[in-house]
Amino acid sequence: MNPQPEPIGPIPHHDVVVIGAGQAGLSMSRQLTDRGIDHIVFERDTIAHEWRDTRWDNFTLVTPNWQCALPGYRYDGPDPDGFMTREEVYAWVRAYADTFAPPVREHIAVTAVTAAAAGGFDIETTAGRLHADQVVVAAGGYHTPTVPRFAERLPAGIRQLHSAEYRNAADLPEGGVFVVGTGQSGAQIAEDLHLAGREVHLAVGSAPRVARFYRGRDCVAWLQDMGHYDLPIENQPGGLGKRENTNHYVTGRDGGRDIDLRRFALEGMALYGRMVDVRDGSFLFEPSLEKSLDAADAVAEGIKDSIDAYIARAAVDAPIEPRYQPVWRPDHETTVLDPVALGITSLVWAVGFRTDYRWLRVGVFDGEGHPCHNRGVTGTDGLYFLGLPWLHTWGSGRFAAVARDAEYLADRIRRTARETAAA
Known about the structure:
Blueprint (H helix, E strand, L loop, with lengths): L12 E7 L3 H12 L4 E5 L5 H5 L15 E2 L2 E2 L11 H13 L5 E3 L3 E6 L5 E5 L2 E10 L6 E2 L13 E4 L13 E5 L3 H12 L4 E4 L9 E2 L2 E2 H7 L35 H6 L3 E3 L2 E5 L2 E4 L3 H26 L21 E2 L6 E6 L3 E2 L5 E2 L21 E3 L16 H21 L1
Parallel strand pairs: 1-2, 1-8, 2-5, 6-21, 8-22, 10-19, 11-12, 11-19, 12-15
Antiparallel strand pairs: 3-4, 6-7, 7-8, 9-20, 13-14, 16-17, 17-18
Pfam family, one: Pyr_redox_3
Protein name: FAD-dependent oxidoreductase
Keywords: Oxidoreductase
């Protein structure tokens, strides 16, 4: 077969290429548009598709609607203290794109980015090649669903799926459902199944939890007033290690409430420690359930301690509220379980994702494949990341602070362009 001929004429050029058209990529586009900077946005699917395609039917935000803000665009609906559903978030982000008509090319995937010998970056896409002076990667940090190697040893009759594939309880076969993982997705999916009347088994990990409301307000509102969400990652306890932390579990469903795994256990949900293996058809667990429940409660109570201290320091008039008391404790730790004998017919892996930047052929990654950056600015001139968890603050991977991060990078991009032009 003869090779495809090289394109005739100059390769197309843009000052900036943005990769990804979710809320981060759109925020970047708006900031660049406001500054009159030439750019194009490539999206392998459609604008904001992740909100529509990778969340379950009853998904809601866990942060209140008043915290949702993009550049020049804020939530202005009827329920600022509520929590948008999956469909509402998708519609809200799509409507944002309509406010300024970003130059998005949908259904075009970026397949390679390399540093160009003459400066800038050579970019290969499914629609052809081009060159850019600067590149913003706004493709998120959750690329490939994680499933442990021992998943291949599950009994053949058990249907497996990742949390990104879960949609609703009715899609699963009749019988018990096992959920592995208690980060935000795992805890909320377990609740979704429980509320649907399914028999649920849950392997509890080390994720912390937070109360939904305390002393008359959403805990998010208290923490916002305390400046918690504006504190840069390097000033947080644990520093850059925060980027590896699991999010606190809580829910915005039905107006928002705690997720109390102990309460679920009282209502019939079976809880286990961390799942570590499958052998001879049996699930194996660490005897870590009680320790994990106590640790999650301790984090929630510690957050309340900080809120109490703020209320006292600022002399805020707030109602007194009794502290949480555990409603259930395990009387034993199950370490071996026969899923078939218990009638378990499906399993949901809610154990996270890993990054996949194989197409980004620039040396800006650590040994684990995570990008090295300072507030999204890498060690390679002109290459940036936006929308990653803890890019700069807690809100960087959320609606709370992506606008601020995009503004910072847009100013940096403009300054770099001017310095390059003057050289």
